Amino acid sequence: EKLVENELQFDWFSAKFSIDYIYDKKLTEFKGQIRIRKDSIIWLSFSPALGIEMARLKITDDSVFFMNRINKTYLKGDYKFINDFLQTNIDFDILQSFIIGNDFQFYEKTKFRAFIDNQEYRLSTMERHKLKKYVKQDETLKAFIQNIWLNPENYKITRVNIKEFNNDKRLDAHYRDFKDHEGQLFPFEIVFEITADEKIIVEVDYSRITIGKELSFPFTIPSKYERIY
Question: What phi and psi values does residue 159 have, to the nearest 5 degrees?
């Protein structure tokens, strides 16, 4: 109850960000902006150091749209693109929650066990399922093993991990540098670690956060761009 009470409350969210993406011990740096309409759309624009947009990504609850302005290519698909890229298996609810630092909204909350772990609260479950009313007809259901660590003073999530049964793939997120934004605490630094065939580390630093301002999500693909997926 305290976890839910202290989660970020928003309908619209936007921020500037910088990202360090580390894969196969190689570092790639991005800057950009993110916009979210809660439970509906996640929109990202990526730019290299010079500030010219190189790519744009729009994610809905069932679709993924990606446009590469450097190669003049685009794709329209489902979550297979994201899950192949991250070497994991997530949906919109999980993705939105990891980005914001909230708990999953559409998954059951009744089977957690509580512990004290290194001066934090830890909630653990061996079998977390999606709520049936949010399951799509063609969706493959998977149960997650999950741990959530909470700051005992403000009940904000400081770390969360999920792991699927029967494989070694795991997704960890660490939330740091909490600052007050209009009366709500928000983590301005997040580190994601994806453990799969190769380890992927994504370090995100947020700035210029805005909550509650209505946003647009422009995504027009030029006619000369080639579809690759």
Answer: -160, 145
Residue 58 token pair: 């729009």
Q: Which amino acid is at 64?
A: V
Distances (CA, A) of 207 to 45, 77, 129, 134: 15, 30, 34, 33
Global pTM value = 0.91
> What pLDDT band is residue 86 in, cutting at 50, 70 and 90?
low
Residues 6+ apart with CB under 8 A from 72: 222, 224, 225, 226
Tell me the backbone φ, ψ of residue 105, rounded to 5 degrees: -85, -35
Query: Tell me, what DSSP letter sits at residue 107?
Result: B
Q: Cα(34)–Cα(17) distance, rounded to whole angstroms?
A: 7
Section 43-60 average pLDDT = 89
Token digits of residue 43: 């929109």
Helix (H, G, I), strand (E, B) or coil at 45: strand
Structure tokens at 173: 């997120």
- Residue listed under structure tokens 């795991």: 170
pLDDT for the residue 85: 67
